[in-house]
Records
---
Amino acid sequence: MSTVLYPSPIFGPVHSRRLGVSLGINLMPNDGKLCSFDCIYCECGFNKDFRTSTRRPSREEVRRALENVLQKMTSDGILPDVLTFAGNGEPTAHPQFKEIIEDTIALRDAYCPNSHVSVLTNATFISRQNVFDALMKVDNNILKLDTADDAYIKLVNRPASTDYTVQGQVANMKKFNGHCIIQTMFMKGIFNGKDVNNVKPEYIEPWLRAVAEIKPRQVMIYTIDRETPDKELRKASKEELDDIVRQIESLGIRATASY
Ligand code: SF4
């Protein structure tokens, strides 16, 4: 299985398809994965294969490591376009997420004021006030919504919480009042004998209605890039992604696709 676990708490800089030159901040341990989803396409692998007993890095460890890297990058004359919270699982699950965001914004302002702070999140904790408040402070609040279909989410994203509903998520995403970007994975293939093609109109149409309701400032769609833990998954085509981009733009919402 060719999956990727990221160093912790800082990795990169790496060139991201979606975000430019990105310095990664991984709030999970570096020897395993901690996520409230268990997506069948996750580049870190299935949760069960990457259990960890190591603790998450503390707020102070993250702050110190980030400052060290930014000092080095400053002396090398290369600064990141973006500081990206991502890595081996769900960043907003960290108990000190809000304080870590505040530290990161302070370090960004001190060392690289032109860089943006981005958070890639599966959005499962946005109903928590401190997570919501922290995400309101970052430049790019990037929320995952792969379909508007609860059965598909259960099959493909596999939330740990049995309380997860698309309706509840959309209601919470609307509270950002446009201060959010929706990220959606489009793919094809089979998982456990079931078709997971979400490029079909029966998935696209309700998803577009949900996007129209949320009114994000942007939508980022993408498809499988690296090897996935399930071997039966396939990329959506460039033509299919471009067609979806056009449908989003017809709602008056900016959209980008990564192939
Ligand atoms: S939300 Fe992200 S980190 Fe979590 S399982 Fe899905 S792809 Fe992996």
Note: Helices lie at 59-76, 97-111, 129-137, 150-156, 166-174, 201-214, 238-249.
---
Amino acid sequence: MSSMAERAERAGIPVHTFDLENDQRFGVDPFAVWDEAASVAPLFYSPAGRGFLVAADYDTVKTVLQNPRMWSNLPSTITYTKEDVEMDVPPITMDPPQHTAYRKALIPLFSPRAVAPLEPRIREIAHQLCDEIEEAGECDVMRDFAGRLPAQFFLEWLGLAEGDVRRMYQLAQAATFDFPTQEQRTAIEAEINGIVGASITARRAEPADDLATAFTHLRVDGEPVEEGLLVGMATLAFIAGQETTSTQFGWMLWHLGRVEEDRRLLQERPEVIPDAIEELMRVYNTGGPAGRVAAADGELNGYPVRAGDRLFLARCGADRQTDRQVQLLRTPNRHSAFGLGIHRCLGSHVARIEMRIGLEVWQERFPDYRVPADFVPQFRWGSFMQQLVSLPVELSPATVA
Ligand code: HEM
């Protein structure tokens, strides 16, 4: 049987090395690397790692995500690494019909109605963090605000506020940014499983009004969920709840701290913050990486797909390619930052609330913050995301004690 590279050549699909694992430019300007990929072709082949197709425009990404029969999440290996590293984070690591049943069970835990009552607590935490920043008189947004608000809130919701918060954040980071060996990946997941499993067990004995307790009541097709799967789903929430939202929120404050016009717009018209969040997610798409595996032979953009072919969704480049200019009031706003298909982000409602409240509180407390003109950003990147390493900001003297 011909290799993926040979089939690409025969079908006229370009070959371009897109190498998340080794391309150091991701640490300097990740968006330039995504934009370069998007400019190659809507679909190309990358010989990096074990070799994979790259879907690099919005329509191709959408086609793949909306065809889960053809494009499977199994086996759930990290698409672009040299080593074959399998993950176990249900329901991402499931296909229909199993996925359909589990997702249906999870939806009520994260629905708009379920998460709306969390708003006051999120606002309270945001203000507490701003109090600390005010007192300190200086701030690194990633260290003191964007990197803390989601983690603090989410760990509390998962019944873990009393635990070793620093270690739990490190674990979420390792699960997100490391390019691990199988041994390391298994060890990271096992440690997180142990932490969230203990919280679920504690809530069985002593229920509370929180997400950990909601997990204890979860039923799939009317039946209790096998413990390993239940804990695996809580583990995914642990990782996504801390790291993804922090990272995405950091990008927003980075943009607004540099572009005065946009900062002023949101101060004058806070009611447009939700629109601005969508646009900033589109342009600074955090959760770039995601992969799929062909479940059957078929065709994509003229490429003859064979069962087992790996495909990588370059969502970040694809979303930016539709227009690289930031227009905070853009409507409609098509983006794939929360996914587009059956695995679309279950945490999107709570993440949007966190980012909206975070922005509201931040601009109320520090309306004139700015990123220093000589700041040179550095980026952490890895298996699932790209993140600002730090974001020092100048606060308005009037707001600093
Ligand atoms: C701004 C923050 C977030 C972003 C950008 C984001 C992004 C994504 C994306 C792109 C997917 C789809 C993956 C795919 O199709 O392969 C996804 C799935 C998922 N996300 Fe999020 N996420 C965020 C926050 C959260 C939070 C706070 C939670 C907390 C519960 C969460 C839980 C999930 C779950 C459970 C799935 C899997 C859904 C399924 O497989 O059916 N996410 N997320």
Note: Residues 65, 91-92, 103, 110, 236-237, 240-241, 244-245, 248, 286-287, 290, 337-339, 343, 345-347, 350-351 surround protoporphyrin IX containing FE (CB under 6 Å).
---
Amino acid sequence: MPRLQDKVAIITGGSGGIGAEATRMFTAEGASVVVADLDEDRGRELVRSVVESGGRAEFFRTDVTSSEDWDALIDFTRGTFQKLDVLINNAGISHLGMTDPTSLDGWNQLMNVNASSIFLGTNAAVPAMTEAGGGSIVNVSSVYGILGSHGHPGYNASKGAVRALTKATAVSQGSRGIRANSVHPGVMPPMRTGGTVDDRILELRAGFAKSTPLGRLGTSADVAGALLFLASDESSYITGAEIVIDGGLMAQ
Ligand SMILES: NC(=O)c1ccc[n+]([C@@H]2O[C@H](COP(=O)([O-])OP(=O)(O)OC[C@H]3O[C@@H](n4cnc5c(N)ncnc54)[C@H](O)[C@@H]3O)[C@@H](O)[C@H]2O)c1
């Protein structure tokens, strides 16, 4: 039986690297997926290719920082696929494309898109999941939500907030049958929304690959595989957990 048979999932940031890979995997495993993203062109193209290969997916333009957009997204999902079982809070931005990530503006932007969005999404999804008899929320954090790093405090803090919010959700929603877990990708190919990648960043990443026990950077599929497991009933007794997907970087 497909691993996500009859599940209905929302994947935020579904037009991007990890989100698009998760959309392909989830639909191949029987889920109906709503791709929720600001990037309409890529999102609609992805949905077209999924539907062409026999999957069920829809695109819904969503700004995850807007509570009105969240309400509309949940209404759309229930109207189209009748229920909501899985929410993958994956949309996010990095400090790389910002003029000054250490300014208050930079901090606010990172906290808003990476952390407050998940607070809004969780609040919007819980009533629909409760009606469905339970659900799974998976929040995409980062190893930099656990570790500190130089020069981008807002990224660290926003991803740390995601980690703690996930545990708060697991504790407060467990009695409704709603699970919440976080995933923490390590160093991967740069995020598409991360701005220009200069030689210094490429050099840094090559260094990370060398110092990672598995000897390579991560891929979108590495992360999407963990999202699939946490979305499925295979993880039905796992809540409040964090899965680090970093090739062993943090184990050292
Ligand atoms: N790539 C990495 O190295 C890496 C490492 C650790 C964690 N992560 C996390 O993984 C997640 C996905 O990253 P990715 O590498 O696929 O990046 P990506 O830039 O390819 O995709 C992010 C997607 O989020 C969307 N998005 C941004 N702001 C939005 C908003 N306000 N509303 C709706 N959609 C919005 C973008 O349009 C984009 O499609 C992010 O949360 C990121 O922080 C990535």
Note: The pocket of nicotinamide-adenine-dinucleotide is lined by residues 12-13, 15-19, 37-39, 62-65, 90-94, 113, 140, 142, 185, 188, 191-193 (CB under 6 Å).
